[in-house]
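With this grant's support, we have settled on a layout for protein records. A representative record follows, to show the layout.
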Amino acid sequence: MTGAARYDDIADFYAEGWTDVLDDPASVRLLDLLEPVAGLRVLDIACGHGRISRELARRGAAVVGADISEALIARARTAEHDTPLGIRYLHADVSQPFEPDLPPFDVVVCAFGLSDVDDLEGAAATAAGALRPGGVFACSILHPCFPGGPGVSGSWPGDARYHMEGWWRADGELSSLRRRVGANHRTLSTYVNTFRRHGLRLDKLDEPEPAPAWAAERPEAAKFPVFLVMRWVKQ
């Protein structure tokens, strides 16, 4: 099943569950790593229904959002129509080359989208290729080393090993999204080495702790690193 079909089938569930309220620690830190964005050109890859795109536009960035899911892009365009922020949304596979008329961007961002992209090499090429020299690529992901806990699926299947990469569908009762769309597990070294191959230099790496309410409901899972946020600079 393609990334398009996975999210097209659950677009309503996703849009209703992940709103424009961006108060989770990983999103807060991701946005902090991009500031100041006022006046910058930003490309949001795997943008979904545009929640990060809209926040960046509210902060003064000129934003283009792209996603493979036609259903989610339709919701993003509806939001832009209802409350115009000057965002352009593209229905596009972010692991493929983008439109040639797009000028270089100052920033490329990807919020929790890389595990949904089957072709990481292609996505890294798109991100690096869209940036001007010295531009910033920032991303947030479920920590590749997160083993999960009772009711919470980790980054890799429970009957597998950390070093076994590939797509899989979570079964944890509290892992509601990944039960529906699955995820690609990759090791931390795979992420780092892939980005390095495309001329991106690691500038900042953070492992924000989950929100207290999340941790209180999942105390065993909260003992481990849950989120990873990275900022890279194009050389």
Remarks:
- The chain has a mean pLDDT of 96.
